[in-house]
Design a protein that fits this description.
Helix content is 4%, strand content 38%. With 332 residues, the protein is mainly β. It has 2 domains: 132 residues, Immunoglobulin-like, CATH 2.60.40; 102 residues, Lipocalin (Beta Barrel). The longest helix has 9 residues. The protein is globular and about 55 Å long.
Length: 332
Amino acid sequence: MSRKKYGTALLGIALLVSGCAAPTTVSPQAGTATIAPNPSTDAPVDPTESVQGTGSWNATSTPDPNPPADPATETAEPAEAGPPSMAFVADVTLPDGTVVQPGELLLKIWRVENNGGAAWETEWPPFLLTFDAGDQLSGPSTAQALFYPPGVELSLESDFMVWSDPYISLEPGEQADLPLLLRAPEAAGHYRGYWMLVSGEGEELGGLYVDIIVEEDAAPSDTWSGAWTQQDPYITSSCYGPLNLLQEGSRVDGFGYACDGRLLLARGSVTDPGVVEGSFGLGGFVFPFTWVMLPGGNQFQGIYQDSSFTVGAWCAGRYGEEPPFEACMPVE
């Protein structure tokens, strides 16, 4: 079966940097077949006799000017597909009770099935994962739901293009892997967060959850690791969202959900004390950035560059500090 792939959902990233922001299966009804009598066993037919509706292939009949409808040729009414519905299949990553490190970046992947009677057209309007209850785990209130072939290798280290090629439709009975990026709390405890898959038309398809255990506390980090509240990387935007970073050595990896829950991946390295340079985006929409840590260590200001002529602002704060809106652009 041919399958459409992700074609224009990356338009969201282009908009971002340029100004933003279990039902039962219904089987087709079969028609009623008309079976021709066996000429070797049927009674002989007088060819001069007018025969109506015998179905015998050697009969001569006089056409009826108003013949009754043939049930075999009537067009059946299409069956109602019913509302979209989702079935949970398996936890691909982070099965219930997984022990994680404080502040660890988490990739939760559920395998789900379209168990309704109609295809999911997931690209536009996009399907969404919305936070419902429990522990949000530094995740977004709303994330655009992305569906990938079962078993695809997804990670924060995966090539941007791997993340940029989800399905845009899922037929009835087909399965897909549905990821969500989160961050473990820094305090020890047992955490569970509930999420709802919602169609582009606002219909709730079903709930999913994440269940993890953090076994020990961790002190707030004085590096780039942490859950940051970012201003969307464009100076005129009013969009906010989480930016979750993890520094290991000089390497800094992270992700964010910007305007309307669009996923962005960020990868960089510390080039000078308090300075990170790298790239962010998805697929062919990848842009360089520079972040500069401000005094106090819980705010940064920065820029991203989408061409050799234009730049946009990027700033964020953590541990209760607001993004430094009045000074998003680094000092020249």
